[in-house]
Amino acid sequence: MINDRIIEIAKIQGSLFEYSCKKRECASSFFIKQFLYSSLAKRMNDINFLYESSSITDLYNELSKEKKLNVGKEIYPEAVMYWIGYLLAVMAINNNYSPQQIYRIITPKELFISYEAYHSFNVEDAIDRIIESKMNNKNDLELFKTTR
Q1: I need a surface site. Which of 28, 39, 81, 127 has the fewest CB within 10 A?
Q2: Which residues span the domain enclosing 40?
Q3: Could you give the number of structural domains in the chain?
Q4: Interval 82-95: pLDDT, tens
């Protein structure tokens, strides 16, 4: 169940993803991958992240120091990136997935395509539908969960 702390982290992560569009330094799909494989993503998966006092600009700058953020040109709309960031945060924290596991479940391109179908859903329902669409049956999902 999503609580207020998860929602706050999801809002921060959504804002960070949205900010990446404003910076226009790299392709959105590349930004998402770089983020998911960063130490920042690991930190943001912990509820204690809320006790940090970093601005969105500071978080972006921290990520850009760790990861190369200057590849590609295709930038998704800001609303789409906010939704993707928000959804990924809830997916990671609420389902206890690592950022890398999420990347193995669904690619940035698939998230972009999923926006049209799922952005108006409750975020938990959207996550369930995305996971269900990626797994052939419950045995696949259980196998995935036990091997992570």
Answers
A1: 39
A2: 4-147
A3: 1
A4: 999 999 999 999 88
